Recover the amino acids of this structure.
């Protein structure tokens, strides 16, 4: 089955800095890669996703990149703000049929004011 | 749409007692997932249903855990007897049918925080 590794487990940055979270996956058939943000005491919520037919996607201060050859994808947050502090999860899945995402272990991002 | 609805939000119970967690998926969604989240293990998939049928329960930790989905709008996760190590946040998620190139609406509920003392 699919295996998703996520690094780092904890990331501490100063407000205004950039943050990068990296994930690798094992199943070359995976073609859909969502990212979830979980604020303290709340549910994980989708913030951005990327499909295997594109290499990069951007939405304001967040962007995702995908390298299918190397089987890794990354989340980039620029100009971090304290409200970006949360746990971020990456996931990999195969679209078509039953959608069953495999999640990484999560990265706790702390943005210091 | 009210989203995925879980109840209760918090549950405190004594060791040995039966605990039942409830989930109402988004209307029209045909897949339902139960997860357990702890600091040690992260987000673990326990079981998932497709069209009310359990497809994969390999993540269910022990026979003390059971899940049912009697209809498309309701699912339960039961722990009997409960133990302190079952303390965690339990999330339910649902998703709709796969659409070519489209997002299937995979959404988490707000979770149930279970404490077994």
């Amino acid at each position: 089955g699919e295996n998703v590794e996520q690094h780092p487990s904890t990331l501490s940055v100063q407000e205004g800095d950039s943050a990068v979270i990296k994930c690798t996956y094992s199943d070359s058939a995976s073609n859909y890669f969502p990212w979830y943000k979980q604020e303290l005491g709340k549910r994980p919520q989708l913030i951005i996703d990327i499909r295997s037919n594109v290499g990069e996607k951007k939405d304001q201060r967040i962007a995702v990149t995908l390298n299918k050859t190397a089987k890794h994808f990354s989340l980039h947050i620029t100009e971090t703000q304290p409200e970006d502090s949360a746990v971020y999860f990456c996931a990999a899945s195969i679209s078509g049929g039953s959608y069953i995402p495999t999640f990484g272990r999560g990265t706790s991002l702390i943005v210091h004011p | 749409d009210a989203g995925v609805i879980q109840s209760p939000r918090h549950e405190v119970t004594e060791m040995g007692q039966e605990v039942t967690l409830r989930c109402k998926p988004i209307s029209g969604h045909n897949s339902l997932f139960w997860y357990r989240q702890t600091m040690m293990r992260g987000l673990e998939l326990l079981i998932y249903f497709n069209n009310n049928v359990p497809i994969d329960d390999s993540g269910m930790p022990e026979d003390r855990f059971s899940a049912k989905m009697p209809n498309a709008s309701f699912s339960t996760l039961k722990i009997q007897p409960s133990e302190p190590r079952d303390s965690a946040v339990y999330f339910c998620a649902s998703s709709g049918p796969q659409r070519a190139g489209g997002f299937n609406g995979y959404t988490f509920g707000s979770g149930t925080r279970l404490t077994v003392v």
Notes: Chain B has a mean pLDDT of 91.
